[in-house]
Design brief:
heterodimer, A: about 240 residues, alpha/beta, Rossmann fold, six-stranded mixed β-sheet, four-stranded antiparallel β-sheet, B: about 400 residues, alpha+beta, 2 domains, six-stranded mixed beta barrel, about 15% strand, elongated, binds adenosine-5'-triphosphate, binds magnesium ion
């Protein structure tokens, strides 16, 4: 596959994006003309009420879904022009996903789960083990590496999924309500990890419906009924968003 | 992602649900086992028939006068004359009169087959004498009532006594035992060791006729069999003027017929058993399709973290092929037992041939890949977001 090289000052460029679900007569506009640009090393929080289109937007950014119309450039490459395998490579090398429901494979142990993106990246065994170890130590789960996900607490599972997102050392982390299923203490641990990752230079996109959590980010984008109604980088200070 | 990884993943998911894997394999196990056992048993039973035909000797040509209403026959003297004219192609002509006789010695008695023939019989049948002598030309000429008995008869009638020069009664006619044949089979009743050989000219009463109804003609070499058959047929046609009056059968032609029958039997049984293999393959496809649906979420997660279509495809394809091959191996192991057991029950030497085993194994691998293709391709084409949202 051709190498996807960066040729834009923006990491993410979304132009006039629509995602319309047709349900018989009705149509749901999950995204209704979204424009969004994100530079490398930004820490962006996307907030909005339930059903506003946050997850839909994140799936677009993560090349997991295709829009009804509109353009999406990732590192200057138009996503819709990329082949299936090229999109897979982008998800593999550029993006680390953290899901609300962890999405670990239940039949694999923690180490095997974290190793998986490295396997798909074709990293040789010795290097793979080393990178897996680094990621697991980072989230403090190295001694639990032989446990199955079901044998871990929610917080530990989320840490395992963070380790998996980090393992291949992608420049961008996409987190869809990573603290949604956690209590406030473990939630803030996870949040601190995201902040650390941002400080190390990663682009972090965090989806949350909790304004307090959103304020940890440098930039807040509010979405409502599929439209961006507030962007602190355009519309001024993020302090306009109530805590 | 390389093949080793695909294998590891496939092995992991196979071993994660052993019961299901086993049930999936069952069709292949039964199919492979059936193919091998059936083909081996067919070949084994052919083997024992082949053996008994081959024991007749490759040079051997049987001439039988089959005309039912005709009393016509060809005398031994005429056959010898024919032999003398065709020495190049034919080495021996031996009368082969057969009948059954009640054989008695003192208080012991048994039923045995009686063969009326000439001294060359020993050569043509590739037999040997254990003690005494075989019948000779003088016996034939003088119609002497002498008999050579098989090792089974010797044991049953005489026990530890020496049979030579003893008088036995065959159908109440007195015969002198002059020799005992070497044992060639298991010396059981009904075997080749249960026989009494007398000069053909002496057995009119036993055979109830003086006409020879059957000869064994011995071609000079195996290569000359065809020409010898030709000449015998021409000679007999000149005698009878009717092809229906006789039949000339060489071992070679019997083997050809047998090969044809075996070939058909093998294809037939392999075909029937092969159908069960295909059914087993459909079973794999069925389970794999269910498994793809069940594992939609897993596939979605794998795609989200960067699995390419080809990675998913090869994972599921290898899984199907592995299940099928594993089933093949288990089927092969079972078939080894099955063949030996069935062979024993049927009383034949049946061994599973490496050839058939290899064929069955390859076939099961192909079936796994063939029937795994559709589910694997379905899995690989799943849209990541739809797959992630499945539960
Ligand atoms: N596959 C789908 N088919 C039909 N409608 C859909 C589908 N996926 C999402 N939607 C609709 O699109 C809208 C946006 O959904 P989305 O999941 O993006 O919301 P969200 O902002 O993430 O909400 P939450 O905070 O509850 O997670 C919703 O109205 C939802 O019903
Ligand atoms: Mg959501």
């Amino acid at each position: 596959m051709k190498d996807v090289i960066s040729n834009s000052e923006y990491m993410i460029e979304i132009e006039d994006m629509y995602k319309i679900y047709k349900m018989g007569e009705n149509e749901v506009r999950a995204l209704n003309g979204v424009n969004l640009k994100i530079k490398p090393h930004e820490f962006v929080a996307i907030i909005g009420p339930s059903g506003s289109g946050k997850s839909t937007l994140m799936n677009m950014i993560g090349c997991l879904d295709t829009p009804t119309s509109g353009k999406y450039y990732i590192d200057g490459n138009e996503a819709s022009q990329l082949k299936d395998d090229e999109q897979a490579a982008i998800r593999n090398k550029k993006i680390g996903f953290i899901f609300q429901q962890y999405n670990l494979l239940p039949k694999l142990n923690v180490e095997e789960n974290v190793e998986l993106p490295l396997i798909y990246a074709g990293v040789p065994l010795a290097k793979r083990r080393e990178m897996t170890k680094t990621a697991l130590e980072r989230v403090g789960l190295y001694d639990r590496r032989f446990h199955r996900p079901t044998e871990l607490s929610g917080g530990q599972q989320q840490r395992a999924s963070i380790a998996r997102a980090l393992a291949a050392r992608p420049p961008m982390i996409l987190a869809d309500e990573p603290t949604g299923a956690l209590d406030s203490k473990t939630g803030s641990e996870v949040l601190n990890m995201l902040k650390e990752l941002h400080q190390e230079g990663k682009t972090v996109i965090l989806i949350t419906h909790d304004n307090k959590i959103a304020h940890e980010a440098d930039r807040i984008v509010r979405i409502m009924d599929g439209e961006i109604v507030f962007d602190s980088s355009v519309d001024g200070d993020k302090s306009q968003v109530n805590v | 992602m390389n093949l080793t990884q695909s294998f590891k993943m496939a092995i992991k998911s196979i071993s994660a649900s052993k019961m299901r894997t086993f049930l999936t394999m069952l069709g292949i196990i039964i199919g492979v086992c059936a193919v091998i056992v059936l083909v081996s048993v067919v070949q084994g039973s052919t083997g024992s028939i082949t053996e008994s035909i081959e024991s007749l000797g490759a040079n051997s040509i049987n001439v039988i006068f089959t005309g039912r209403n005709s009393t016509k026959s060809v005398s031994y003297e005429e056959m010898v004359e024919f032999l003398d004219e065709n020495r190049e192609y034919i080495s021996y002509v031996v009368p082969n009169m057969t009948g059954n006789g009640r054989v008695k010695y003192q208080s012991s008695n048994l039923n045995s087959s009686v063969v009326g023939t000439t001294p060359d019989y020993l050569t043509v049948k590739n037999r040997d004498i254990q003690s005494g002598r075989f019948i000779n030309d003088m016996d034939v000429q003088k119609r002497r009532k002498v008999a050579v008995i098989g090792s089974y008869n010797a044991r049953e009638l005489f026990g530890f006594e020496d049979p030579i020069d003893k008088q036995i009664k065959i159908n109440n006619e007195l015969y002198t035992v002059v020799g005992v044949l070497d044992a060639i089979s298991n010396s059981e009743g009904g075997s080749d060791d249960d026989t009494v050989i007398i000069p053909y000219s002496a057995g009119r009463l036993i055979f109830r006729t003086s006409k020879i109804r059957s000869y064994v003609v011995w071609a000079s070499t195996a290569e000359n069999v065809e020409e010898a058959v030709d000449r015998v047929e021409r000679f007999l046609y000149s005698k009878f003027g009717d092809e229906d009056e006789y039949s000339v059968i060489s071992v070679a032609s019997m083997m050809d017929t047998l090969d044809e029958i075996t070939g058909m039997m093998t294809i037939l049984t392999a075909g029937i058993a092969g159908i069960s293999l295909v059914v087993g393959g459909i079973g794999i496809m069925n389970i794999m399709l269910v498994s793809v649906t069940e594992r939609t979420r897993e596939i979605g997660i794998r795609k989200a973290i960067g699995a390419k279509r080809s990675s998913i495809m090869s994972q599921f394809l290898i899984e199907a092929a592995l299940v099928s091959c594993l089933g093949g191996v288990i089927g092969i192991l079972l078939s080894c037992f099955g063949t030996v057991i069935l062979g024993n029950v049927m009383g034949i030497d049946a061994f599973p041939s490496i050839f058939v085993m290899l064929g069955a194994f390859l076939f099961s691998a192909v079936i796994g890949i063939f029937f795994g293709w559709a589910p694997a391709s379905k899995a690989s084409k799943l849209n990541p977001i739809d797959a992630l949202h499945a539960d």
